[in-house]
Design brief:
The complex is a heterodimer.
Chain A (H helix, E strand, L loop, with lengths): L1 H22 L1 H15 L15 H11 L10 H18 L8 E4 L2 E4 L8 H22 L3 H24 L1 H7 L4 H7 L5 H4 L1 H14 L24 H26 L12 H20 L7 H27 L1
Antiparallel strand pairs in A: 1-2
Chain B lengths: L1 H14 L2 H14 L12 E3 L9 E3 L14 H5 L5 E7 L5 E9 L8 H5 L5 E3 L14 E2 L1 H5 L10 E8 L5 E4 L5 E2 L8
Antiparallel strand pairs in B: 1-7, 2-5, 3-4, 4-6, 7-8, 7-9
Classes of the chains: A mainly alpha, B alpha+beta.
Chain lengths: ~325, ~190
């Protein structure tokens, strides 16, 4: 009986997580367009629903009813596989991400995470690494020169920024003495990691911007100067898959930034429920992502590589050494 | 010495991304400034200034007689030859236009006809909503021109409006004078 309840709880949590992650891009696209509009002294979507609130639904319906085009020369199997490969890893990662300690509903304690792995951080980075396959398959299977070029650019970018990102969080792991995200948040109960690890946070955040392919590192897409990058040949629902995965990674980066550096669900001054604190912090980071997008221009590709290898990597290395020395 | 200090200050600023922070502060400020969007045609409408050059109209004198004396000066000065005037003599012996047609599809709204007119009979009014699916419908005759709205008395405001798609694409204003749109412009 208890096993059934536990299993049912896990299934329920996973279903809820998938539903939230699939539906969150809708308000996020609306928010992004709204913020873009107001930054540029426009209004953004206004016509569909109250202040354009139903605009994402209309866009979704449009994407679903568009022709799902597959190029004649494409590798059909890989072409269909790539969006799923791009979509799955950001969803899988959230299994290891805690959203709080636990809440008691009807007398039973329900933990606000699907699983408490002791190597959660490693799991997160390992699974996010798979994301690259979706990108490279998508570009290659379409049998288009531009898509291949775009996917190669994206791959090089993601792989080279994953390294400083991985090094940047080592400082956090050293402070918490654990790779479990739950323990990392518990270790920040009094002082957030941002106080000890400002450089680590900087490296992590910049690398996170590059990982989620947002401006100023969105060379994969570069709406202004490219067709679309690796998903040039995709249309309809498969294109929507890539978009959803992009938003999920943006969300993941925000969640990780909050958990690793901003104390997770630990609040300051104002006594709010932990989950509310967590959501507020994540929302702030999501806003920062959007805010950056409509403030900064795009880096050139050689500058992107130079920042990754010549600035962020040495910085993250130095961060590890200094943290280690201070820790001794 | 102060130049060196300035340079050091700039370098320190770069090290802490002062320029990026400036950019972020600017866009953040703009996010809370008023938007300059005019929600035409279903919510707001622009009232043109009195000098606005919109659709032509023909004037009448005090007796209600058409002012035009069909001298054809407007047709002569028109740079795109869009006015066609054919004169006739009415029962009082005055020269009047039998046919006065303006091809709005060709007109470039320069207002030279208004300047050239010796009888102050033609002018460019405030109407600017006369798009059409057929360029044939854009040839406007004498009687239609007499009925067109004249110059705006006030203007330069944005008024509430409503889109009426039942009969035609019509904009109905509910206020005589709107708010001054220029107040929304952020000047820094």
């Amino acid at each position: 009986m208890e096993l059934v309840v536990a299993l049912g709880l896990i299934v329920f949590k996973v279903a809820l997580l998938i539903a939230i992650l699939l539906l969150l891009p809708l308000p996020l696209t609306w928010l992004e367009r709204k913020i873009a509009g107001h930054v540029q002294q426009r209004m953004g979507p206004m016509r569909v629903g109250w202040h354009g609130l139903l605009q994402p639904v209309a866009d979704g319906v449009k994407l679903l009813t568009k022709e799902d085009h597959i190029p004649a020369e494409a590798d059909r199997f890989l072409f269909k596989l790539a969006p799923i490969l791009a979509l799955a890893p950001p969803f899988v990662v959230f299994v290891a991400v805690p959203f709080g300690e636990s809440v008691s509903v009807l007398g039973t304690e329900i933990t606000l995470y699907v699983s408490n792995m002791n190597v959660a951080l490693l799991f997160v980075f390992a699974v996010i690494g798979i994301e690259v396959y979706g990108v490279i398959f998508g570009g290659w299977a379409a049998n288009s020169k531009y898509a291949v070029l775009g996917s190669l650019r994206t791959c090089a970018q993601m792989i080279s920024y994953e390294i400083p990102m991985g090094f940047a969080v080592i400082g956090v792991v050293m402070l918490a003495q654990s790779m479990s995200l739950l323990d990392i948040v518990r270790a920040q109960a009094n002082v957030w990691n941002i106080v000890y690890q400002p450089v680590g946070f900087f490296v992590f955040f910049v690398a996170g911007l590059a990982e989620s392919q947002r401006i100023p590192f969105d060379l994969a897409e570069a709406e202004g100067d490219l067709g679309a990058g690796f998903h040039t040949e995709y249309s309809g629902i498969r294109f929507a898959f890539f978009m959803v995965s992009e938003y999920a990674i943006m969300l993941l980066t925000s969640v990780l930034a909050v958990i690793l550096f901003f104390g997770g669900w630990n609040g300051v001054l104002v006594p709010l429920p932990p989950l509310v604190w967590f959501v507020l912090k994540v929302a702030f980071f999501v806003y920062v992502f959007i805010w950056f997008r409509f403030t900064f221009p795009r880096y050139r590709y050689d500058q992107l590589m130079a920042i990754g290898w010549k600035v962020l990597l040495p910085l993250s290395m130095a961060n590890i050494i200094i943290t280690g020395v201070a820790f001794l | 010495m102060s130049r060196t200090l300035d340079r050091i200050g700039t370098w320190i600023g770069w090290a802490f991304f002062a320029d990026l922070a400036n950019g972020l502060a600017l866009t953040f400020g703009y996010m809370f400034s008023k938007s300059v969007t005019m929600q035409y045609p279903d919510k707001e409408k622009w009232l043109p200034y009195s000098r606005y050059r919109g659709h032509h109209f023909l004037k009448r004198d005090e007796e209600g007689e058409i002012k035009c004396v069909a001298c054809e000066l407007c047709a002569r000065i028109c740079p795109c030859y869009c006015i066609e005037v054919i004169p006739y003599e009415d029962e009082k012996g005055n020269r009047r236009p039998a046919k006065f047609e303006i091809d709005m599809a060709r007109c470039l709204f320069c207002g030279l006809c208004e300047d050239a007119c010796p009888a102050d009979a033609i002018a460019l009014g405030q109407q600017y909503e006369f798009s059409s699916f057929s360029s044939r419908d854009l040839v406007i005759g004498r009687d239609d021109l007499l009925g067109k709205p004249g110059k705006a008395m006030t203007g330069g405001g944005v008024v509430a409006a409503r889109l009426n798609t039942e009969q035609d694409v019509l904009v109905e204003t509910s206020e005589p004078q709107g708010y001054n749109w220029w107040r929304n412009i952020r000047r820094t």
